[in-house]
Specification:
The protein has strands at 5-10, 14-17, 20-22, 29-35, 38-41, 44-46. With 51 residues, the protein is an all-beta fold. The strands form three sheets. The protein has a two-stranded parallel ribbon with strand order 1-4. Strands 2-5 form a two-stranded parallel sheet. Strands 3-6 form a two-stranded parallel ribbon. It is flat. It starts with a strand and ends in a 5-residue tail after the last strand. The mean pLDDT is 88.
């Protein structure tokens, strides 16, 4: 999988909480032209972007 979590466009009032993302080929969290705000916390990120 290229990205673990991908946010694009209007992301106002979104919440990303308590995820485990492991061994993704790209980034764990990728934001492309986001508008608004997000709360991102308590996520476990391991061994991403190693290729």
């Amino acid at each position: 999988m290229p990205d673990g979590i991908r946010l694009d466009g209007n992301i106002d009032r979104s919440e990303i909480f308590g995820n485990l993302t492991c061994v993704n080929d790209g980034s764990d969290l990728y934001m492309f032209t986001p508008e608004g705000s997000s709360r991102i916390y308590a996520n476990d990120i391991r061994f991403d972007g190693r290729r």
